[in-house]
Each structure stands twice: as C-alpha cells, then as structure tokens.
Amino acid sequence: MFRSLLTKDKPLIIFWLLALGIPWIPTSLRADIYRYQDENGVVHFTNAPTDSKYQLFLREQQKSRTSFPSKGNPKSFSSTMPNLNNYSLLVPHIDEASQQYGIDPKLIQAVIHVESNFDPQALSPKGAQGLMQLMPQTARNLQVSDAFSPKENIDGGTRYLKYLMDIYNQDMYLALAAYNAGPEKVNLYRGIPPYQETKTYVQRVMQLYNQLRSPLLSTR
C-alpha cells in the first residue's frame, strides 16, 4: 500500500522531477492511486483507501510487458522518468535482498532502473525477464521459478550481483560489466569488455548509484 509517498520518498521524487524537468508523473506512468491532504498539509497516497477522505488521484492503466531492445542494450533509462509508483512497492523487496546479500540497496535500485525502469513485466527480445532482466537460464540457475515476480526477481538478481562482486573482489565496475556482458567476456578481456553497450551500461548504473548516494537524496 502507498502511504505518505511525498513524506517517505520526497527527496528521491524531488530529485527526479527537478533533474528531468518534469512537473509531474507522465500519464503513461500513472496508476490507480487515491490521495488526501491532512490538517498539517501532508499529502497521503494509497492504492487501497480506507477512509472517505481519499479521492481518486490517478487512474490505473492496463499493464503490459514492456519490450526492450536487448539485454545488453537497454533504453536510456538514465534520462527517463522512473516509475515511482512501482518503486514504492518494490522497496521492501530491495531492502530484504540488500540485507540478505550485503549489497547496497541503492546499487540494486540503480540496476533495476537501468535494466527495466522498475517494470516487473519487462521482457527483452532476447528473453531477459523482469525487473533485473534475468535470462531464463540464469533464472533457472538461481532457482527463480517466476522471473516476473518482483520478490523472486530482485532476490535472484541481487544474489547474482553478490556472486559477481565476490569473484571480482568487490570491484563494482567489473561486477556490473559482467552482469551486462557475462563473466566470460570480462575474463576474456581482463576488464570491462570493449563493447560500447557494456561501457555505457556501467556508466549509467554508476551515475545513478552515485546520485542516489548523495546526502541530499538519502532516505535510508
């Protein structure tokens, strides 16, 4: 349930709106949300109103699986408004995976943003699935039975990221390159592979990660 979205996630929301010059969430990203403003001026949001004070704010649209160009060459999500509605629902799963595998939740968030823009139904032409764009064989190896389940996908993707961080001695750049291009390519070139899509991918994730770590945006 969404509650007090503008109080809990206000720094993150303000960052995206101001940085991208977008006055509010685009129509294409809207969901079925209700809102009311209390006596203190705090705006509350929910997708399951329990009080008549809540009024319909955003109408839910029919969900569909978003198709991306490829696993290794996603859309430029670093310049795209993130789906903040989905993000709010994903926070508990991100926090749980972060605590279980010792990966910074902001890194998980950055990877999800670049991979799928927080769309649990994302599907690439090559078959990469879900929030962290797991290939079917990778999902099977990680014992992810439903790659479109946010909880399972985030758990599996974070576990895979933890594995890559460990084998590359906590080198985040190499781990991200391997997440995108595969460990065999990183091993072959003994570093980030000379593929523009992989170099761009690593740059995008690290840029978002560093922005989210900014003290001005920290909510954790």
Describe the structure in your own words:
The protein is mainly alpha-helical. The protein has 2 domains: 5-58, no CATH class; 77-212, Orthogonal Bundle (Lysozyme), CATH 1.10.530.10. Helices cover 47% and strands 6% of the residues. The chain is built from 9 helices and 3 strands. It has helices spanning 5-8, 10-20, 84-101, 105-116, 136-141, 150-167, 172-181, 183-189, 196-212; strands spanning 33-37, 43-46, 55-58. Strands 2-1-3 form a 3-stranded antiparallel sheet. Strand 1 (33-37) and strand 2 (43-46) form a beta hairpin. The chain is elongated, with a radius of gyration of 18 Å. The two termini are 19 Å apart. Mean pLDDT is 78; it is low at 1-11, 13-31 and 68-79.
Helices and strands, with pairings:
Elements lengths: L4 H4 L1 H11 L12 E5 L5 E4 L8 E4 L25 H18 L3 H12 L19 H6 L8 H18 L4 H10 L1 H7 L6 H17 L8
Antiparallel strand pairs: 1-2, 1-3
Helix pairs in contact: 3-6, 4-9, 6-7, 7-8, 7-9
How many beta-strand runs?
3
User: What is the helix content?
Assistant: 40-55%
Mean pLDDT: 78
The number of helical elements comes to 9
Structural class: mainly alpha
- Strand-residue fraction? 5-15%
| Largest sheet: spatial strand order | 2-1-3
Overall form: elongated
* Low-confidence residue ranges: 1-11, 13-31, 68-79
What is the highest CATH level, the class of the largest domain?
Mainly Alpha
Query: Number of domains in the coordinates?
Result: 2
Sheet bearing the most strands, described?
Answer: 3 strands, antiparallel
Please tell me how large the radius of gyration is: 18 Å
CATH topology of the largest domain: Lysozyme
First and last CA, distance: 19 Å
